[in-house]
Design a protein that fits this description.
220 residues, mainly alpha
Amino acid sequence: MGDQVPRDEEELPLSHYSCPSIVNSPSCIVLPNPNVNFEIKPNMLSILPTFHGMTNERPYDHIIEFDAICSTMRLGGLTLEGLKLRLLPLSLKDQARTWFHKLKSRSITSWADMQGVFLNAYYPHDRTTYMRDSLTKFYQEDSETFYEAWERFKDIEICCPHHGLTKWLLCESFYNGLIIDDRRRLDNASGGNFLKKVPNAAWDICEELATQSGKWDVST
């Protein structure tokens, strides 16, 4: 009859149907050399940078610092790539760890894959657009010295290495965003007209003038 219940189901207590099930979800990472014996010690984990997935965090900085720390480690017979693939998940906390566990199982087979997925998640298109606009529409604050403005400009540029802007456009954008007195200083340091310089020379002049400004100028 249609209302008959399988024998094994009849014998289970009602509480069984509300118990959490044991899951074994495969990782998103396909690890190289899975049979290598190694031990990850607590002191190794303690020096790893952490990333929480917050909007004010800098994903490129996390990858760069993580990469630098891993390059100083040696672990059994693991390659550097294998080491990084094993340790990166342990550097993720809170929202970032939840994001990692949602990735498709066995979808990452290399460190390049891991970096790409991570940066695509935490450096979306709108963030790139914002950072690119921050460079092309840069302006110096009234209270900033030349040194402070130049360092802030470079900090924006480093935070978005994939901005795609050429050096000449970066130099021009910085120059156009300066207050009039500092534009004059750049022109004087360039022999009369900063915009007549080739990009590499223009960048070097900014560096030299920033060094001088850092020594003598005082922010207001």
